[in-house]
Design brief:
The structure holds two protein chains of two kinds.
Chain A: E1 4-7, H1 11-22, E2 27-31, H2 34-50, H3 61-66, E3 68-72, E4 82-85, H4 91-104, E5 110-113, H5 120-124, E6 133-137, E7 147-152, H6 158-170, E8 174-177, H7 186-202, H8 208-218, H9 225-232, H10 234-248, H11 257-265
Parallel strand pairs in A: 1-2, 1-4, 2-3, 4-5, 5-6, 7-8
Antiparallel strand pairs in A: 6-7
Helix pairs in contact in A: 1-2, 7-9, 7-10, 10-11
Chain B: H1 5-16, H2 36-50, H3 67-79
Helix pairs in contact in B: 1-2, 1-3
The chains are: A alpha/beta, B mainly alpha.
Chain lengths: ~280, ~80
């Protein structure tokens, strides 16, 4: 089986790489710094160890890690049949990565855009293979979530859709078909909810624990919106809201100043040890 | 201050969920709001605080249900001979 390139070793890239490896795929995980890749492998080792405790399958960390190689720079993904891109939700960063991937990879390589908001057709337009670019919105934590949004762009070919469906099935994921629209279904609703929840804290209407308590106890949600923000990453939430704001030019998506301040202050949620809540960190 | 394993664990759990009444016997996962992500934090806290590495076969939710079950796990692992 040919190797799958995973671009970006942040929260989502790490989850995608682990999910692929634990379902028997060979993976090359790519980022721009050696240190990030080292940390990513340590995170995968920790997460596979915790898998059973988290309600997942019992996993052998060494076996999962043996299927993952790493590379600094996108040239490492040149031989991949499929590339799953998970870089930050910032258009300039994404564009640069896709221009580089398009130059490095074989013309038949499928590019899977893992984004929570950026239109797939816009990504496809910066490549010379718009028929081979498709969106998959993975949920976090990737190995534990059973479904994804599958988003063909305007030019995506039926063959690309089928190849992506086959890969998702092999990863144990159910694909929910959604049309290409900024934010798709999930984040048009979720990001506005999280943003409004942040405004409630910002305005002093309720503290974070009380906001989340309403969602858990009154609505029966497993997590409240601000716990969810800490899980996704407060910085990622901000970028996603900014993408929606810019795309629709609609003031209903204006980002809460508290999200901006927390992002600047490094309060990025679970991954940084502190966000709306404080967490015990590894080590 | 707490100086027993049970007390230190209880303090950590109460610090995270100040709105709940939690004693050493309480099954914290029986509360609707404690999810498996907190189980992962508990593992990290216990390993760091007590200087132990929990073997994979002990990473079961039953070992982390209450301060008592966690303290029992810590006691078992601290008394075991170290195997290289």
């Amino acid at each position: 089986m040919s190797v799958i390139g995973v671009i970006g070793a942040g929260v989502m890239g790490v989850g995608v790489a682990q999910n692929l490896a634990q379902t028997g795929h060979d993976v090359v995980l790519v980022d721009k710094e050696e240190g990030i890749l080292r940390e990513a492998l340590a995170t995968i080792a920790r997460n596979t160890r915790m898998s059973r405790l988290m309600g997942g399958p019992a996993l052998d960390s060494d076996e999962v890690l043996s299927r993952i190689s790493t590379s600094v720079g996108v040239a490492g993904a040149a031989k991949a049949a499929v590339v799953i891109e998970n870089v930050t939700e910032n258009w300039d960063v994404k564009r640069e990565v896709y221009e580089a991937l398009d130059a490095e990879c074989h013309p038949d390589t499928v590019f899977v855009v893992n984004t929570s908001a950026i239109p797939i057709t816009k990504v496809a337009a910066v490549t010379r293979r718009p028929g081979k670019v498709i969106g998959v919105h993975f949920m976090n934590p990737v190995p534990a979530k059973p479904a994804v949004e599958l988003i063909p762009g305007f030019h995506t070919s039926p063959e690309t859709v089928q190849r992506t469906r086959d890969l998702l099935q092999a990863m144990g994921k159910k694909a929910v078909d959604v049309k290409d629209s900024c934010g798709f279904v999930s984040n048009r609703v979720l990001m506005l909810t999280v943003n409004e929840a942040a405004y409630l804290v910002h305005e002093g209407v309720a503290d974070a624990a009380s906001v989340d308590e309403v969602f858990r106890s009154c609505f029966g949600h497993p997590m409240g919106p601000l716990e969810t923000a800490d899980l996704i990453g407060v910085d990622t939430i901000l970028y996603s809201v900014e993408v929606l704001y810019e795309h629709y030019a609609d003031s209903k998506y204006r980002p809460c100043p508290l999200l901006k301040q927390m992002t600047d202050a490094g309060l990025h949620g679970r991954k940084s040890g502190r966000g709306f809540y404080t967490y015990a960190t590894a080590g | 201050m707490f100086d027993t394993a049970q007390g230190q664990i209880l303090e950590f759990v109460r610090g995270r969920y100040p709105q709940a009444e939690i004693d050493a016997e309480q099954d914290i996962f029986a509360f609707g709001f404690v999810n498996s992500l907190f189980a992962m934090e508990l593992v990290m806290f216990v390993e760091k605080t007590f200087g132990i590495t929990i073997p994979n076969e002990e990473l079961r939710i039953d070992n982390f249900r209450s301060a008592n079950t966690m303290a029992a796990l810590v006691g078992r692992l601290q008394n075991e001979p170290v195997v290289a």
